[in-house]
Design goal:
heterodimer, A: 279 residues, Rossmann fold, 5-stranded parallel sheet, 7 strands, 12% strand, B: 317 residues, alpha/beta, 2 domains, 41% helix, globular, binds thiamine diphosphate, binds magnesium ion
Chain lengths: 279, 317
């Protein structure tokens, strides 16, 4: 039913968008955007009920980007889904643009939560999930966090709340790319054994390859079938995925490609064949 | 407009909050109340007993409570969070700033144990910087009701406006100077006593102290205007302009640090728009300490006696 080739095609376009947006902006966060491409494309093009023509539709599923710095991937997916024109993507981080350096729910159609200070999104997602239960609304809530981000203590306050309140309409996804700004997460402050941590907070845990659409879709499906507790998907990913010189490099966390790097990246993605111009 | 001093009764601000929530429980089904393990002290336990399905004890997790409230508000509910003012404005400031205020979410934040009068618990529990912390954030409304009756009104009024809302009230019984029919509108200051020589702009329980001072000074030939500036943000500037034009000086008085609270807000406006002699009364740049509420208020200069001295001083200059 889910046409994986279709999702792959969109993912390729989204990777191109991310490189292009950050190149035009001259700043931004390509690494943690690229690692989340397959997860985000799965959510918006297969898993979630959303209506780009009616972004405020009451019964839509909700997505919370807790790792707000990865907004290029969110903006691209929203644009490709039809929430706003893909033309806008080039205005990322520019004065007057609705595409802020970190997400603003008041400015961008489809952005649910203003974020950028790490560690807050899971609580917000809990609030939505609790509210949905109180109002008997059959909606599902998804929250994407970084692996470095979950060093924030407030994430574990939220994890405890969701476990205690058995929020089975909630799915957290950890973009487990092993890198944060200062280097390897295991060197800075290690998370292992991460699955055990979530389990001990009363969560159902699913570990997957976060770039494999089959595994991603089946994890979301398993989460939906799981009743009586929230689900966390630990998605093993590669920071900078798809652009080889960015892969697994902490320095590509928050840096834009220069012109040469931009061209190289597009070539690697299979665009610019036959010496096309980028301008 | 207000009660005669002979009719003043004593009641803690927090009881007004508890009563306001009970009333809201009945009329506003969207209201959800949250607490962080202080529900007996903040009086949210009254609401919890009557509306358990709309009460959430978040445990001792203020950051989580505030951001969760943000999520609830996104579903169209009207969450009220309660804990001590110092904990919520300090511990959860970033959640309040980024998630709630930047996101313009409809979250109502109650700060209990406002001021030095918290008493024996001492500095860690006495909110003296909370108003400054909340006032600095865009989109935030900040209200410090003058008594339990007004606290009840503020609690209800908060639900009738959209947007982030911080209000703070005290632990101890303080004079109830207003009655049911005393006007209360967010953003509109009320002149509780007219006067021509000097204006005292106060909020919280300091309004009662200011009134006492005005009544004592009247027979001495000093005419004191007393303004209840319950809303610190947005400030009612018309009342300030009038005071600056019609009286010789403005004194502000609050149970809060002299840095960044009501005094700061009034001074920011006065200095740039209608310069007039000013004195800011509050706790100095210092932490509180343990003691009986009355002895602390006296030691920190938050009494009508101290205010009278300051009024005489400023008029002498
Ligand atoms: C509260 C807070 N502290 C620090 C930062 C600065 N910061 C932005 S991204 C980041 C690293 C995030 O690493 P991770 O969560 O692993 O994200 P990813 O690898 O997916 O990009 C940091 C420290 C922040 N945005 N918020
Ligand atoms: Mg990471």
């Amino acid at each position: 039913m889910n046409d994986i080739n279709f999702l792959k095609k969109i993912a390729l376009q989204v990777r191109k968008d991310i490189v292009e947006m950050t190149y035009h902006a001259g700043s931004g966060h390509p690494g943690g955007s690229l690692s989340a491409v397959e997860i985000m494309v799965s959510l918006y093009f297969s898993v979630m009920k959303v209506d780009p023509k009616n972004p405020d539709w009451e019964d839509r599923d909700r997505f919370v980007l807790s790792k707000g710095h990865a907004c290029p991937v969110l903006y691209s997916v929203l644009a490709r889904k039809g929430f706003f024109s893909p033309e806008d993507l080039k205005t990322l981080r520019k004065f007057g643009s609705h595409l802020q350096g970190h997400p603003s729910r008041l400015k961008t159609p489809g952005v649910e939560v203003s974020a950028g200070s790490l560690g807050q999104g899971l609580s917000v997602a809990n609030g939505i999930a609790i509210g949905a239960k109180m109002l008997n609304k059959d909606i599902r809530v998804y929250c994407l966090m970084g692996d470095g981000e979950i060093q924030e203590g407030s994430v574990w306050e939220a994890a405890m709340t969701a476990g205690h309140r058995k929020l089975d309409n909630l799915v957290a996804i950890v973009d487990y790319n092993n890198l944060q700004i200062d280097g390897w997460v295991e060197d800075v402050k290690g998370l292992a054994p991460l699955a055990d941590k979530w389990r001990s907070f009363r969560w159902h845990v699913i570990g997957i390859d976060g770039h494999d659409f089959d595994q991603i879709l089946s994890a979301f499906n398993e989460a939906e079938q799981t009743k009586g507790c929230p689900t966390v998907i630990l998605a093993e990913t590669v920071k900078g995925k798809g652009i080889s010189f960015m892969e697994n490099k902490a320095e590509w966390h928050g840096k834009a490609p220069n012109r040469q790097e931009y061209i190289e990246a597009l070539e690697e993605l299979g665009f610019l064949k036959g010496g096309e111009s980028i301008d | 407009m207000i009660k005669e001093i002979s009719e003043w009764s004593m009641k803690p601000g927090r009881d007004g909050f508890g009563e306001g929530l009970l009333e809201l429980g009945e009329v506003q089904p969207k209201v959800v109340v949250m607490d962080a393990d202080l529900s007996k002290s903040t009086r949210t336990n009254w609401f919890a007993a009557k509306y358990p399905e709309r009460f959430i004890d978040m445990g001792i997790a203020e950051q989580d409570m505030l951001a969760t409230a943000g999520g609830l508000s996104m579903m169209g509910l009207i969450p009220y969070t309660a804990t001590y003012g110092t904990f919520v404005t300090g511990r959860a400031w970033d959640q309040i700033r980024t998630t709630i205020c930047y996101g313009e979410l409809n979250v109502k934040i109650a700060g209990a144990h406002g001021g030095i009068s918290v008493g024996a618990d001492g500095a860690t529990h006495q909110a003296l910087e909370d108003v400054a912390l909340m006032r600095a954030i865009p989109n935030m409304t900040v209200v410090v009701p003058c008594d339990a009756e007004e606290c009840k009104k503020a609690t209800i009024a908060a639900s009738e406006m959209y947007g982030p809302f911080y209000f703070r009230f005290g632990r101890e019984a303080t004079p109830v100077i207003t009655h049911e029919n005393t006007p209360f509108k967010i953003g509109r200051a009320e002149t509780f006593h007219d006067g021509e020589d000097i204006t005292v702009i106060a909020n919280g329980p300091m309004v009662a102290e200011a009134l006492k001072a005005a009544y004592i000074l009247e027979p001495q030939g000093i005419s004191v205007r007393v303004v209840n500036m319950h809303t610190v943000k947005p400030l009612d500037i018309s009342v300030i302009i009038k005071a600056a034009r019609e009286t010789k000086a403005i004194i502000t008085m609050e149970e809060h640090s002299i840095i960044g609270g009501l005094g700061g807000a009034v001074a920011e406006f006065v200095s740039q728009n209608c310069p007039v002699k000013m004195k800011i009364i509050g706790t100095k740049d210092t932490f509180g300490e343990s003691g009986q509420p009355d002895e602390l208020l006296e030691a920190f200069g938050l009494t009508s006696e101290h205010l009278i001295e300051e009024i005489k001083n400023i008029l002498k200059k």
